[in-house]
Amino acid sequence: MAQQGFNDYLRSDKGSPRSVIMISAHGDVRSPTKDVQVKQEDLDLILNEAKRGLDKFSSSSNNNPNAWMNEILNEVTKSSPAKQVAIGGISGWCSGYLIGKVGKIALIAVGGSFIILQLAHNQGLIQINWNAIESKVNSTQKEMKKSIDKNLPGLIESAKDFGLKYLYLSGSFCAGLLLGICS
Question: What span is annotated as the signal peptide, if there is one (predicted)?
Fold first, then answer.
């Protein structure tokens, strides 16, 4: 039966939801109210819809770990541009807000640690080998520069392709991200 028929079953004549039923792994039907009568074809419909949803999820996640995200993005791009802008802007703002809050906490933690290390060093409680730290930082910088030079062109090209494919979503996400960081 189609999804609409399944949704119609879940609503009674007055538009309120039907009683909640629980189906055990053995097929037992239980309900908080004792007078629930479930027809076998309705029970089969519910079980088939649940199985179809699980099969769809498991088949897409086995082949490609990013398949579920591609499915969501493709579904959203089928909707109107206004809906795409709204979804992109809201998700961008939420991401930016979280980045701003987590970033502040990280900066406070790193800055506080540095201040505590400096105080301990000035009090003579610890000795810091600045030459070893400087050499380690320099070697890490060289490794990062090599990695960036190797991967940056492909990353920029991928971001450009993504932005053009999902224009409304990516544009409104970026705008929402900036607003979220600022708020």
Answer: none
Q: Which of 37, 46, 40, 38 is nearest to 5 (CA)?
A: 46
The pTM (predicted TM-score) of the whole model is 0.54
What residues contact residue 38 under an 8 Å CB cut-off, 6+ apart? 21, 29
How much is the CA Rg of the chain, to the nearest whole Å?
A: 27
> What three-state secondary structure class fits 179?
helix
Q: Which residue has the higher pLDDT, 118 or 54?
A: 118
Amino acid letter, residue 145: K
Other beta carbons within 10 angstroms of residue 104's beta carbon come to: 10
pLDDT in tens, 153-171: 888 888 898 888 888 888 9
Helix (H, G, I), strand (E, B) or coil at 31: coil
pLDDT higher than 80, residue 10: no
> Alpha-carbon distance 155 to 99, whole Å?
21
String of DSSP letters for 71-124: HHHHHHHTS-HHHHHHHHHHHHHHHHHHHHHHHHHHHHHHHHHHHHHHHHHHTT
Domain chopping of the chain, boundaries = 3-63, 79-182
